[in-house]
Amino acid sequence: MKHISRREFLTSIGVAGTSMFLPKDSQAWKSRAPENPFACLVDVTRCIGCRKCELACNEANNLPEPEKDFEDKTVFEEKRRPSDKAFTVVNRFFSNKKQDKEGNLLPTYVKIQCMHCQDPACASACITGALSKQPNGAVYYDVKKCIGCRYCMVACPFEIPAYEYFNPITPRVRKCTFCFERISKKGGKPACASVCPTEAITFGRRKDLLQIAKNRIKQDPGRYIDHIYGEKEVGGTCWLYISDQPMEELGFPSVPKRPIPKLTETIQSTLFTYLWSPIVLFGVLSGIMAINKHKEEGNEK
Amino acid sequence: MKKIIFLLTMLCLVVSNSYSSPDATTKIRKDYHPRPSTWVPKDHIKALKLAQKKYEFVKDVFKEDIILRQMRFRHLGIGIKDIKSTYMVLQSPFVNTYEDIYGPVRFMHGAHAKTLNENCVICHHYSPKDSPNKILPCRACHQDAFNPEHAGRIGLKAAYHQRCIGCHKQRQKGPIGCTGCHLKNVPDHKKLVKLPKDPTPTQVTQECLRCHKNAGQEMLTSAHWLWRGPSPYTVNHLKCTKHGKGTDVLNND
Amino acid sequence: MKNRPRPLLDTPFWTPGMLVATGFMIAGIIVLAFRYTKGLGYTTNLSYSYPWGIWIAIDVASGVALAAGGFTTAFLAHILGKKFYKPITRPALLTAALGYTFVALGVFVDIGRSWAIWKPIIFQNHTSVLFEVGMCVMTYLTVLWIEFLPVIAERYGEKISILKSLNKGLDKFMWIFIVLGVVLSCMHQSSLGTLLLIAPTKLSSLWYTPILPLLFLTSAFAVGYPMVIVETTIATSSLKLSSEMDILSKLSRIVIILLGIYIALKLGDLIYRGKFWNIFDGTGQSNSLLIEIVFGAIVPWIMLLFDKVRNSRRLLFIASLLIVLGVLLNRINVFIVGFNPHFAKCTYYPSIGEILVTCSFVSAIFFLYRVFVTFCPVISAPKEGGRK
Ligand code: SF4
Ligand code: SF4
Ligand code: SF4
């Protein structure tokens, strides 16, 4: 009696468990990233911390008036994060220890916003597909589908999506839209990129921008470190950064090079493509049930 | 808060008077040096015209060693004397890519050239490929930003800003902040201000504070409010130490 | 074992425990009123860095795990056809049905747009683990109540004729629902573990492992019977019924195997990933893991090895309770303690409001369990001493 139960339990564990590892290579995970989407290259060494990008973003997305206006430089005293009221924020760092002639530390300014990952974890996680990667590169949020589960926020490696926690009935997830409507029009540019006075934000096609970034680094090796943040990070992002120091010094998280959704999507697709494993399990279990019933009836006779 | 309102009320009284009541006596200040009726700001008009001048986009550029280039220009006798206008207005559709937050910069071309020892190549760094002896303005090569055909080339706005700010920073001379060079385009307040027909002074102040939230608080930390010292320039009140608004009976309710 | 399940109309209903439960429920409703008028931000300590709190970690993730008793006993009694275990299936089924109802309710209040909870049925994202979990939980909840329908029909079938005919019609297909229940459980019990695999940078490496789904599944298997033991013991002792020790101690022998598998996988995984010694780092997280493994798994496992423990009502209860708490702690660890967002300004602690709502849900489960056993034929244990 006990023996059967033991064996059967092992079977069911086996079916659900081991199948996870079996066809891993037979169903290799494929990236669904667009080939050459729109992208932005942020050159940290060019940014002067004027916060015009914040202003433009605020206007372009009809965000509420900020508490401190966009001229106010005291906001740099603390490290800010994008929020439901500001899709992009500029932070100030003194991490590179460079000084001017009088010995004052020189600041480095970094703008942050959604990275518009090539294989976005948020979109892979989203239960209804309210977040989705668009062919033009933007990771687009469709409020009509959102149920507010906040799994995208759990998933995002850059902790970008913000949430309207104080809206009781219709809270939205809020993040940089890549100015989806603007860039969908011919010749349209993101508000922040077109306002930026120093072209610290360059807008273009991802492949071109990677080339530009490489050229800039090659032409001025003293000015940059030889790394394009976002080229390989989380499998590639549409917002790229070049800088004079590792981006991790500038408040960026260190993230793996592989696409974040790869593991979960591999598990899910190996287990549940055509719902094969549940169907097999169903078959096995009902088989066992039938046999046992049969035995039982036999016994009763 | 009460304090601020009272204080700014006084300020706004003056303003509101001139807006809301047409029959209030308007102050007349005598113009000691009246402008002749035929006068026009010639230089400015010229500069504005120059700013409108279009240049054909230079596609291919030529870069040479900066010192050689400078020597060649010296040799050719290109220098400060070639600068025709007193100043330039850096105004171009290529610059206003978002909206006009600021007015255009008036750039003292000659003065800058002089401080840089007539070293033109500091700014005029490249030339058209086929005519290396030509010096062209920035906007001949730097035009639209993010031009996909010339992906590496920055737009005019960035070219100006990078060059100006970069140099000012490096030499620690000249302004770096926005309003150091630009005048701010103050938005038309007629559209922004919302007041009832005959506003009370307090209402006007409150309306100002609606947007200029910090102005009230800032005023409270200013000498204008806090002043406790003597007033040596105030006739008949030289020794009086009660002329800060904060101590003034009128407002200090 | 000849006892048939029957309603317990003869036991007093308003015991002190029930009054406390009612109090919590009222408090929970008040908090929820604030949640629906002022927002989640007002009632919870959730932030951009910690988007999920105890409503997900306890009400949902642990709720699902602890309701595993339903499908594990169904497997034993119905699929393997072990008639011997029949008496515990109904209470286990009831706990599972109530548990999942409140899992669903937990999700309902936690998501910002509760009214949109049906949307995943139409807008499906097949790469989303949460989608799969959501669909499974939804279907399983329905299946559970369908499985429970005969119990209600047995009592009220005479009065409400639809119930009776519905029950008759379903009778033939009941096996489908029973098997389906087990399949669905296996699916989402494991997928709950997959949920956090999307956050490799946030979930501490003490818990982050590709076999997390397998660990979740095996721990759900392992906690199913201990949960039945705990709830049966509580129910029979508070209702002054016979303790059904013969069934429970037999059940506990299966637990040894199931828990053994889980422990082996868990420790094996830690060793394989080279994280084993990190358990003893002494940080808050490693201590939490240590407690989870030692007191939540190894100690009760060793306890269960002894005949004496398995045959003593008290000791068996303690061992089972340890396992239940161990799995509960495991879920909390994975969803909250081990969750290290990079930009968190401060760590997450549940707010009073969150705790009250969670307590009220637990109380409501107790309350409704009591209501059902009082009015429906769920429990078959005879009155204390009745059988001796
Ligand atoms: S507008 Fe450009 S220069 Fe100004 S803060 Fe933003 S990125 Fe930096
Ligand atoms: S940065 Fe975060 S929110 Fe933006 S696309 Fe990537 S995963 Fe999504
Ligand atoms: S792309 Fe648009 S939404 Fe995103 S930061 Fe820039 S202005 Fe804001």
- Major beta sheet of chain B, specifics? 2 strands, antiparallel
Instruction: Spell out the CATH superfamily of the domain at 42-181 in chain B.
Output: Cytochrome C3
Counting copies of identical and different chains, the oligomeric state is heterotrimer
The count of helical stretches of chain B stands at 11
CATH architecture term of the largest domain in chain A: 2-Layer Sandwich
Average pLDDT confidence of chain B is: 80
Question: In one word, what is the shape of chain A?
Answer: elongated
| H/E series of chain A | HEHEEHEEHEEHHEHEHH
Low-confidence stretches of chain B: 12-24
Top CATH class of the largest domain in chain A: Alpha Beta
Helix content of chain A: 25-40%
The CATH class assignment of the domain at 42-181 in chain B is: Alpha Beta
Task: Record the strand order, biggest sheet of chain B.
Answer: 1-4
| Element pattern of chain B in H and E | HHEHEEHEHHHHHHH
CATH architecture level-2 label of the domain at 42-181 in chain B: Alpha-Beta Complex
Question: CATH topology of the largest domain in chain A, which one?
Answer: Alpha-Beta Plaits
**If strands are numbered along the chain, what order do they take across the biggest sheet of chain A?**
8-1-9
Description:
The complex is a heterotrimer of chains A (301), B (253) and C (388). Chain A is built from nine helices and nine strands. In chain A, a hairpin with a 5-residue loop joins strand 4 and strand 5. Chain A is elongated, with a radius of gyration of 25 Å. With 253 residues, chain B is mainly alpha-helical. Among the domains of chain B are: 140 residues, Cytochrome C3 (Alpha-Beta Complex), CATH 3.90.10.10; 28 residues, no CATH class. In chain B, helix 1 packs across helix 9 and helix 9 packs across helix 10. Chain B starts with a helix and ends in a 27-residue tail after the last helix. About 5% of the residues of chain B have low confidence. Chain C is mainly alpha-helical and 388 residues long. Chain C has a single domain, classed as Formate dehydrogenase/DMSO reductase domain (Formate dehydrogenase/DMSO reductase fold), CATH 1.20.1630. Chain C has 15 helices and no strands. In chain C, helix 5 crosses helix 7. Classes of the chains: A alpha+beta (301), B mainly alpha (253), C mainly alpha (388). The interface between A and B is medium-sized, with 31 and 20 residues. Bound molecules: iron/sulfur cluster (3 copies). The site of one iron/sulfur cluster has 13 residues of chain A, from helix 3.
